[in-house]
Amino acid sequence: MKQSRSRCRAAKLVSTLTKMAGACDDRHGATKAREKPGAKVRLLEPGRFAMLRISATTFIALAALAAAGAPASADMKVGITISATGPGAALGTPEMKTVPVLPSEIAGQKVQYFPLDDASDATKSATNVRKFVTEDKVDVLMGSTLTFTTLPLIDIAAESKTPLLATTAGSVLVDPVDEKRKWVFKVVPNDRIGALALARYMAKQGIKTVGFLAFNDAYGEAWTKEVNKAFPDNGMKIVASETYARTDTSTTAQTLKLIAANPDAIFIAASGTPATVPARELREHGYKGPMFQTHGVASPAFIQAGGKDVEGTVISAEPFVVASQLPDDSPFKKVGLDYVAKYKEVNGTPPAIFGAHLVDGMSIVAAAMPEALKKGAPGTEAFRVALRDAMEQVKGLYLNNGLLTMTPTDHCGYQESSALIMKVENGAFKLIQ
Amino acid sequence: MDTTIVLSLIQDGLVNGAIYALLAVALVLVFAVTRVILIPQGEFVAMAALTYAQVQQGVVPGTAALLVALGGSAFLLDLARGGWRSPRALVQRASIDLVLPVTLFAAARWLAPLQPGPAFAIALTFLLVMPMGPFLYRIAFAPLADASILTLLIAAVGVHLALTVLGLAFFGPEGMRADPLVDGSIELGGTVIQAQQIVVVGASLALMAGLYWFFERTLVGKSLRAVAVNRTGARLVGIPIAASGETAFALAAGIGAVSGILIAPVTMLYYDSGFLIGLKGFVAAIIGGLSSYPIAVSGAIGVGLVQAFAAFWTSTFMEVVVFSLVIPVLLLRSLRSSAVEEE
């Protein structure tokens, strides 16, 4: 990201010919891109003297580039679709803000990013990705924020033979790895890992009965499925199962029903600040027992909104959330703190886990890059195929989301140890196991 | 299910019902006067709640800048459409469209970080949200005043979408909750009642009484009723129709602002929470046939109670149950009225 302004300007000139506008993704360029995703620098209007101007611009641009000493080979391109508006905005906004933090160079190859907003709309995300593969000729696809906006991207990735790094949790995206899904790699761990870790921890605490409250959307649905398996496997019984909506103004009725079932513990499968609503009502209606939540709440906003009502809540989440508390020799610590520092420098605030998905996605690309570059240059099908093959072989990679080892049959290869148990203590997540 | 649970559910239903009742009243009012089905009514609630929460935290609310933009747009649009007959009218308009929003913006900019207290937060929120109503009316609806109900409805959907996007831009995606006006709770018959819940119900009742007085006793209120009963007749006796529309929108936005301030401490609200709240108010307004205030209010209480009990018995289908209420009501109404008149 630290390109000099003159080089950036030179690249801007070239963009009229080779659409290299993304190369100017320095801090300012990226900010602009966020406000108006995908906006291209257009210096040329079609006209009589267009040809003349093109050749003139080429000359000047080439001269400027030569002066700046930029490499002449084609850049690697990454198309990213993010749900920065609509219902996914709470997750998508930190992702959009992460784009300027992504590495500008991998294995000696410059990388351009094309971020676009899909407004939490599955049609829009598909349109974005179609544009990436046909117009921008990207080498890697990344996105989207929600499972249902990512599902239509599988076909496009397979058709165009472009690897897709899915930055959402739905295991349906990579399970099973078939002819189409072999192009998809999931950066976010499966819910199963988190559900298992929590179930084991809860069973160890002597909990026998659980009241379960989930979002009435894909997120809650996925967790309901996992919990219904993981809890009975660990000798626990779900005595009440309720749902609520993200925008519900009241969850009184659901909380009353949970309390009436008199469970040993209450488990809430929700994400972000809406997860604090039932927590508060449970405490208001006199529930004193332990509360458990999912990795969807692992953000400072949750604790800020929940205050004393979420104090003591236990969650399972990714190493990133507690990076600063890990021992100094933990590889997770460096990865996490690195991202936090870079994000803070650009945006001024600490990041949420959602942005880390993009960083992890690029780390997987970085791990596969050297092998792929041997087979072809960016922009060619040979390179994309080789990149996909190499991504499948990535082993023992320490990421914000956990320890990853991909195999041809597992495109979301996080180890079970990747889910850590943490507790809200004095307004912060504290690692307890 | 014991009595404590029943009482708690009733209490929850009444608090939500009180808010839906206010919104239903605003919807009926706006529809009667302007024939606009005010989809963005809920957005006023969300905007007010988020503004109130932000002012309370000492943050300059996003609505301050939005109001300046809306006022400026309304002024310029009116100017482009032919301006005003007299310089005096121009000065009057400019003072409302430009000076007022800028003054409020300045007040928010300098005073909000000092956190002067709840009275200031309430006043500022109200003053920031209420003028949005008439501004939006002049920007989006006044030019279509004589269009069909369907056209007006589509314009209302457009305004709703625009306000939702602006809400995301100004307030961000995370939810906010304000501190309660009065903390504490009392125990009554085995159930705990939060003081804020009493404030919500009490303020709603007071506001409805105030509206009753406004429509029965004041000239402006009576002229609004006259426009609602017969537009042409009202115009013939000298009631300015456009001004009535602005008044109706100002009242609607004002009611939305009060609702927002009331529920901001009760629940967490998001930039897009308004739509669903407004929709439930709309269900109540439909029960009232978009014309009867008392039926709409009792319908709203009913919606609140049904919602609470539906959430208890079958939380997954809560919204389904609430919105299905409309079907029997519409059936009943269509049986009773013989012909549907579409202008």
Task: Detail the poorly predicted runs of chain A.
Answer: 1-52, 62-72
Can you give the helix content of chain A as a percent range? 40-55%
Output the structural class of chain A. Answer: alpha/beta
User: How would a textbook summarize the main sheet of chain B?
Assistant: 2 strands, antiparallel
The radius of gyration over CA of chain A amounts to 23 Å
Q: What is the N-to-C order of secondary-structure elements of chain B (H for helix, E for strand)?
A: HHHHHHHEEHHHHHHHH
DSSP helical segment count of chain A: 15
Structural shape of chain A: elongated
Whole-number average pLDDT of chain A?
Answer: 84
The oligomerization state is heterodimer
Main sheet properties of chain A: 7 strands, mixed
- C-alpha geometry of chain B: globular
- Span between N and C termini of chain B? 51 Å
Please report the distance between the alpha carbons of the first and last residues of chain A.
37 Å
Poorly predicted regions of chain B are none
Please report which band the strand proportion of chain B falls in: under 5%, 5-15%, 15-25%, 25-35%, 35-45% or over 45%.
under 5%
What structural class do the secondary elements of chain B suggest?
mainly alpha
Strand order of the largest sheet of chain A: 8-7-9-10-11-14-15
Q: How many alpha or pi helices of chain B? A: 15
What's the gyration radius of chain B in Å? 20 Å
Task: Describe the secondary structure blueprint for this structure.
The complex is a heterodimer of chains A (433) and B (343).
Chain A: H1 5-18, H2 27-35, H3 50-68, E1 76-82, H4 89-98, E2 105-106, E3 109-117, H5 122-136, E4 140-143, H6 147-150, H7 153-160, E5 164-166, E6 184-186, H8 191-204, E7 209-215, H9 218-233, E8 237-244, H10 252-260, E9 265-269, H11 276-284, E10 291-293, H12 300-306, E11 314-317, H13 331-347, H14 353-375, H15 381-391, E12 397-399, E13 402-404, E14 420-425, E15 428-431
Parallel strand pairs in A: 1-3, 1-4, 4-5, 5-6, 7-8, 7-9, 9-10, 10-11
Antiparallel strand pairs in A: 2-3, 11-14, 12-13, 14-15
Chain B: H1 3-34, H2 41-56, H3 62-80, H4 87-111, H5 118-129, H6 132-141, H7 149-171, E1 185-188, E2 191-194, H8 195-217, H9 219-229, H10 231-236, H11 241-263, H12 274-287, H13 293-313, H14 318-324, H15 326-336
Antiparallel strand pairs in B: 1-2
Helix pairs in contact in B: 1-8, 1-9, 1-11, 1-12, 1-13, 2-5, 2-7, 2-11, 2-12, 3-4, 3-6, 5-11, 6-11, 8-9, 8-11, 9-11, 12-13, 13-14
